[in-house]
Please model this.
Amino acid sequence: MLKKISNLPFKGTPEQEAQLKEVIKKHLDDPGAVMPVLQEAQDIYGYLPIEVQTMIAEGLNVPLEEVYGVSTFYSQFALSPKGKYNISVCLGTACYVKGSGDILNKLSELLGIEAEECTPDGMFSLTACRCIGACGLAPVITVNDDVYGRLTVDDVPGIIGKYKDA
Amino acid sequence: MYRSNVLVCGGTGCTSSDSLKIVDKLNEELKAKGLDKEVNVITTGCFGLCALGPIMVVYPEGSFYSMVKVEDIPEIVEEHLLKGRIVTRLLYQETVENDTVKSLNKTAFYAKQKRVALRNCGVVDPEKIDDYIAQDGYAALGKVLTEMTPEDVIQTMLDSGLRGRGGAGFPTGLKWKFAAGNQADQKYVCCNADEGDPGAFMDRSVLEGDPHVLIEAMAIAAYAIGADKGRVYVRAEYPIAVKRLQIAIDQAREYGLLGEDIFGTGFNFDLELRLGAGAFVCGEETALMTSIEGKRGEPRPRPPFPAVKGLYQKPTILNNVETYANIPQIILKGADWFASMGTEKSKGTKVFALGGKIEHTGLVEVPMGTTLREIVEEIGGGIPNGKKFKASIFLSTTITSSKSAQ
Model:
């Protein structure tokens, strides 16, 4: 699956940068450092914007294309930030046949973003996920840790409204 | 000395149904009753009977409490641990017969099982190296380093007939022999803990329930092939396994069981953890090694095989978690003991994860050659609501009809 790359401005702080430099220093002599450093960088920043990948490439003295190649290969590396509320729509088989595709489209329309993107105000991000094992409640979405099941397209505006006002 | 030992399952299934809160509540209640010096609470790995979780066993009686809730704890502490009266209504009903409690090993689920790889799961505290040592832990490594040559170790593995538990079934001893025969300035021992097949959690339970067995077995393998560095590749989706394995590695280093001059024999071996990042293909051996090197986890053609050119182009052996979990026992009890179990071509035991429409979902270990019907209908308790067993999916690859399950 093609990864969505964020075009939102990078908002890293000097504290985060100092933390990242510490991580890079720790792994400097390690020949397989790119993955562990990317994993720790994602813990620091929440995602891996190109600015962070550039710092890693320069710090470890490896080409940026190699860092980018790794970050786009593994599904756990996020190139787009997550919002305050991350909405995951299950596109597993059971949910999909019960219309979760339509729910994803409705969310996308209402929020003005595609899957794997984040709204400019940082409130909502949208993720299409694989089976979360709640097949009995299909179709299912989760908003952070809250699970909503047996949904129809008409339920979507109400759920978004609940978090917008919160 | 404690009067009673309470074992609470801290495996993934039971943890998801609040077993760690049960441990907290137990400690709190025991303290309030002044019993905390008399009763010892131990968090263990998976017992196997995940369907009945959270699971709690009280020794010396061996009372097997199932589906325990936090609210039940005051009653268990007051009645059982203080007054000595077993709370029968919370027992696993299979263990109750004519008002007496029978041993867990006599229940249908456990009676046909033979636990080798899962020997310590549900028995030891996986975060305490002393628990593992008390169960003959690291004795096999000691025996190998002081009494056996690398050739002896490889011969023992060949004689045992142990085959890789990751799926391909390649003879483990042969793999080691190839790697031992290749001369190099550096060799590696790797462990594949990237268990990604849907529904499989055999390796996960070993990592979470008995992490030291992996460290010991990898050190034995390193001695046999002449390596001094090891890597364990664990998928990041197994956070409890990652945490417990890291604790185990740190403890082993502290005790001098990893590092330099182990047991004063001049043998050096150290181990590092590497985390996956959500790529299914990295369970394939060449992709896994490419991923450890920090690159995109793409497979590469074989030959050259890893025993010739593996990690960083050096001779490497890569075995699965469950394969390693058998090795210390083979060293201690002998190749003949292991080869006495199983069939002509497949020796020993195999762990199965049972899931889906089956009464006892969970983890079982049976001798090779046990029929699928025995596993599903006898150990697994059959299909819920007395339905007929029609077909099963084997590790997401083979669909077996009930007729061929004999």
Remarks:
- The first helix of chain A runs from residue 14 to 26.
- The radius of gyration of chain A is 18 Å.
- Chain A touches chain B at residues 31-36, 38-39, 66, 69-70, 73-77 (CB under 8 Å).
